[in-house]
Amino acid sequence: MNLVPGRFTSNPIPVRGGKWQISTDGGMEPLWNRNGRELFYRSGSRMMAVQVTTQPGFSAGKPVMLFDREYAATEFPATGIAYDVSADGQRFLMVKESDASSAQTQINVVLNWFEELRRRVPTN
User: How far is residue 96's CA from residue 115's CA, in Å, rounded to a whole number?
Assistant: First the structure.
């Protein structure tokens, strides 16, 4: 996977103006950690992370597998990435495909839930 800063994500990217090889096994959906020192990407069913440094120049560490699980690979049109990472870089939000036999057929939508909460738990 070649990294072209600014091409894949709207997150702040610490380095501009270059192209670096990050993975020799391929990869997709690269996303910067908000701290600017780590890059996440997917390689098949594996979620990978690479530590990067930008001073005095750009260098990337060895890719490390964080976990190996099947998640939906449907890309979101705005970003082209099918997952997100928490601000601290410790949690991932991903869509898990469900077995059709266990799929939910009902969604409950609660409107005005603040009012319902105030009614049930008065603040007086």
Answer: 32
